[in-house]
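Appendix B, example 12.
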Amino acid sequence: MTDTTDDHTASIRSTLDDHGNAACLLAWGPVQALLAPDTVLITARDLMAAASFAETDVALIRVFRTELQLDMATIGHMVRDIRAERPTPTGKAALRISAIAGANTGLPYVHIARGSMKGELTPDEARQMAVHWTEAAVAAQIDVRLRYALGEWDRLDITEIDHLFALIQKAAPQ
């Protein structure tokens, strides 16, 4: 991901909230947020959609320009109209996500932002990020169930369970 603010990249990992519920921790520069797994999954869905929309918009522009030989003003109106016909996703994402068809470059991009942080991704980077966010949301839901099961097992206390999860997170690939 190209970060236009500084050298930080957005990262997300599974954790617990203050009530012991499944959660994901987003860390991106000065921005930190504790997110519900459902919000993380909505964000992953929107990243995937934006990647596809950006690529489709670039393809449409190319066809309108080369095959139909339309001027850029007309193409701009047509692309805006097509975008307006796309279904509006439900749910609130953790990031502001936009599909961008680079007018000067002819390349598709996905812009992301939260708070003061902004980034620009290729569609493949957006898809890769979506997979990682999906993995974090699923891991958070599994982790909370595993913590519960270990607690019911009566062989480990809460401190030992926390230590076990800290070891597992350190061993996980980043």
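The radius of gyration is 20 Å. The helical segments are 37-66, 72-85, 123-153, 158-171.
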